[in-house]
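Regression test attached.
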Amino acid sequence: MQNKLSIVLAGEAGQGIQSVENLLVLIFKKDGYNIFATKEYMSRIRGGVNSTTIIISDKPIIAWHEDIDLFLPFSYEAINRFKDKINYSTRIIVDKKYINYENSIDIPFNKTAEEIGSTIFSNTIIAGFLASLFNVNIEILKKTIFDVFAKKGKEIVDKNIIAAVRGYDLAKNYFEIFKINIQKDKKVAEQFLLNGADAISLGAVAGGCNACFAYPMTPSTSVFTNMALYSKKYDIAIEQVEDEIGVINMALGCWYAGGRALVTTSGGGFALMTEGLSLSGMTETPVVIHLAQRPGPATGLPTRTEQGDLNLALYAGHGVFPRIIYAPGNLQQAFYLSALAFNMADKYQIPVFIMSDQYFIDTYYNTEELPLNSVKSENYFVKTDINYKRYKITEDGISLRGIPGYGDGLIAVDSDEHDEDGRITEDLNGISLQMKNKRLKKFIKIKEATLEPVLYGQREYKILLIGWGSTHNIILSALENIKNNDLAFLFFSQVYPLHEKTKDYLRNAVKVIVIENNATGQFADLITKETGFETKYRILKYNGLQFTVEELVKKITEMI
Amino acid sequence: MENMFERQCEIAWCPGCGNFGLRKIVLSALKELNLDQRNTVFVSGIGQAAKAPQYMNVHYFNGLHGRALPAATGIKIANPDLTVIVESGDGDMYGEGGNHFLHTIRRNPDITVIVHNNMVYGLTKGQASPTSQKNMVTPIQVEGVFETPLNPLSLAIALDASFVARGSVGEPELTKELIKNAILHKGFALVDVFQACVSFNKINTHKWFKENTYKIDETYNPEDKIKAFELALKEYPFPLGLFYINKNKVVFEENLPLYKKSKEPLYKRKNDNIKDLLILKK
Ligand SMILES: Cc1ncc(C[n+]2csc(CCOP(=O)(O)OP(=O)(O)O)c2C)c(N)n1
Ligand SMILES: [Mg+2]
């Protein structure tokens, strides 16, 4: 049995929930606890209710659970918002000076903070307090505080260390009340701690990304911020462009001239890029697009999560041209696929998507290894000679890609229908049609390179659960919790094109249940369209939050 | 002597179109500058003017309507050694691409932007463009153009564009020199070029441009921004020549940290030290 304990911190934007989360995940992980953290927040800079869930466990924990063992509300509104989620076993920690709530445990965080000079230290005191309840090594606590605050100068570092230690000591009076006992694991301290945005960004660097263009839009911005952070060391050109139309066109110009650019965006921003996507298809210029989903239509719920843009990614761009869509389900896949996206875009001269969402981007957990050795940056451009033709008709539809300045050939690309030389043409039954067929042939090539879906659970199944993208870990955790010998889970980290074997997997099932974080089942529809198999059983959620494991266990059990 | 940039091919412009004149001017500028064909990239949007690169022996990126500038900037980011020249129409640059025009000037990449300004949308058959003169009647603006025409020169000077000039197909020598200097200039260089559209603009004809333009006096100092702005506001007749130059602006791509370290274009680089990046996340 897994022994775990979840802490939920909830309060107004600006009250410092985020800084407590940032400190705690590092402290717990470095002390050897398996850790998971995710946040949900409002699209505002002050006020409202934001919350973060931190789960500490003796075994790896990779998915969102809804039980709350320790609840720390920072405001009355926070209590109201979580009333339904707390139960008799939830311990509620408050500072009665500010908040009074029945059956809660009163801890004088603010008084302690005032003693060291200011209430602004109460968040660090809380971090120290919680670390102490979990018997974290005090040196790890101090070292982490030092690392996190180092940039702010010695005085701030010192004060925060004092605050953390005060919190740490304060907790000693309450050990008997909480009696927390979770096994640590030394190995965890050496593992990686990352969130989805980190994994995608690191993967991009590993895939040879050397330019990143974007226009800020939640939840895609964290990847942009990461790339900017890595840019100096890894020589990545960063530019915040005037709009998303400019972003994708800049990226295409960059690839055309030999760069490997990443664009990162969310629904509304990507909608503006669709003409550029089509340009990538027509000019056969590679591009990698990270599309971090949030609920629409229009501005929608800017800081919430949904898998609602699959159809957008599938059908965006006028005209017919091939594309690849990856949807990583865990940190390893995100790292691997993000790197692979660059190679595939380059190899097939097409747009390649990495689809994530707010939940995936903002969720942290510790993980053993990243598949560093299985990724490498592959370049496919060639040195050209004087007879070079950018769109030479070939057997498989792929022409060698030259870049200007490398060799003697001239590289002419055209958004008009063109001939082999990249010159405009309207020879409808001649070269124009040949070019259309050339691009169609690439559909066949990329289909051959499709990643197989992964099967978990029973090999001989009757009921097959299907998921894609960010629900991977949650469905997997639910599967482990449901004891049923007929049950398996088929996961797609590539949602387009679909792998040939998809049909075989479907054929073997008596009942197929597709699980998606959107209102209509966009992936289920795609499966039906591509395979002809019915997918009428669907578990869907679309209130702007991700599924929890408990919720899925219940819904799956009801449906099977 | 033969010009290696000149391509022998069918050209899809109307007989008598100002584009032919500008094509000749651009070709001689390229030749006289003795540019290396292998390092010269043209970027264009969509329109009659935007077809210009198709009729030359050059590298080109003939992208989307209005989107030449971000693509050109992306090319400079990937390889600053390339000479990048944007050639497009007034509708393309100032209408559909207006936002990029503003921000590319602010960004100041080392590119040259030649705008075929015929004060009309040619390819789509004669609708008003942002530079169409007031009261011009078109199939859409049936009562005549109502909006104030966009003045690309005063706009560019207001944004402190580093090189701002106006030429005219009717003044080939002057225009060729402006284009040559624009290409040699380090930073964003705009050359707006007056030219006639014989099919769809019956007002601003070759003759009209001759009669409504004059050359800027040789004593004029283009380094004075306020004077340049004043000159740019002059209309009927319109001045031709170099309005403004700012030689002190930092070039965008040179300011990127990766090019401060090394001049190598992106395609020559390899990052092998990803392993230590991961350590950050332990
Ligand atoms: C997104 C988009 N909108 C509209 C068009 C249609 N279109 C093509 S060229 C053009 C205007 C061309 O005017 P200008 O740039 O002045 O070039 P000219 O033909 O006059 O040289 C328009 C509206 C298009 N190709 N793409
Ligand atoms: Mg025009």
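Expected vs. actual: identical. Chain B has ten helices and eight strands.
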